[in-house]
Amino acid sequence: MALCLANSLIARRDFIPYDQLVRYKWWHKFGYMSSTGHCFDIGAATSQSLREFEKRQKLFATQSNIPIRYMDCLSNYELLNQFNVYCSEDEVAGNGALMRLAPVPLFFYRTPDRAVEYSGCSGQITHGDKKAYDACRYYGALIVAALRGYTKEQLLDDDFYVKHKKWFNDKELHPDIESISKGSYKKNGYQAGIRGKGYIVKALEAALWAFWSDNNSFAKGVLAAVNLGDDTDTTAAIYGQLAGAYYGYQELPERWLKHVYAKKFMETLSKWIAYEGECWQKRYESSISPLLTSNI
């Protein structure tokens, strides 16, 4: 799903939640961007949201007199703004919203407030609970900070959220996520209650524990996340997003890289995200500069 999200950002050159859902649907139905050629291990929340999305597409097509075969290609901004992309049921807080997040802060990190808000929205379209929205906002902010050269001490500062409230547009975090931002994960791992569960609050806490305790080693952090048990691959994937942004590609174990499927494709995709993100930033600055001038 992270590859679906990355491809959406690149193809649309912007944050278009509708297009993200289309590509998630393609993954679900046709194996789009899957290493196996088919969808596997989809969570219940994501599956439900994608079924709801398809229902809304059919209804919207009928109401707007659009042939259903064109709905996946919808690009008219007026129509896109009319479509309700928040397809999740209430109180859905699975870790699926968090494990696919990285392309958003990678694309928008030059504008932190946009990166943080879009991070939250990227999760909310399939996971409707505020905890999911805020977990994605907080983790997105950490990835942004890592990309902007913050030290590990700064990233794990118990006051990181307070010091960067402008990045969050001064919107409060859910108390459970705020507790994590204040360092609830800084304890003795599994023995102290750290669990890599499917619940997004537990998953976020586990990933940050792995990052905090990894002795500055990506490999050790991944193994620590996996060895927590439970939802091992997702916990490691969440850890890897922040750790990868912080340590960089050069610190990934070479023996692991040799076995990465479609490695060249993903390297190219990563460069493309960086390029399109820079282009977006220039367009964004151009769009706001007349407004700034008019207010002087």
UniProtKB/TrEMBL annotation:
Superkingdom, natural source: Eukaryota
The protein's enzyme class: hydrolase
InterPro entries, per the entry: ADP-ribosylglycohydrolase, Ribosyl_crysJ1, Ribosyl_crysJ1_sf
UniProt entry tagged with the keyword Magnesium: yes
Enzyme Commission numbers on file: 3.2.1.143
Details of cofactor binding: Binds 2 magnesium ions per subunit.
Keywords: Hydrolase, Magnesium, Metal-binding
Binding site for Mg(2+): D231, D233, T234
Reaction catalysed by this enzyme: alpha-NAD(+) + H2O = ADP-D-ribose + nicotinamide + H(+)
Cofactors (names): Mg(2+)
Single GO MF descriptor: metal ion binding
Assigned protein family: Belongs to the ADP-ribosylglycohydrolase family.
Protein name: ADP-ribosylhydrolase ARH3
Source species: Rotaria sordida
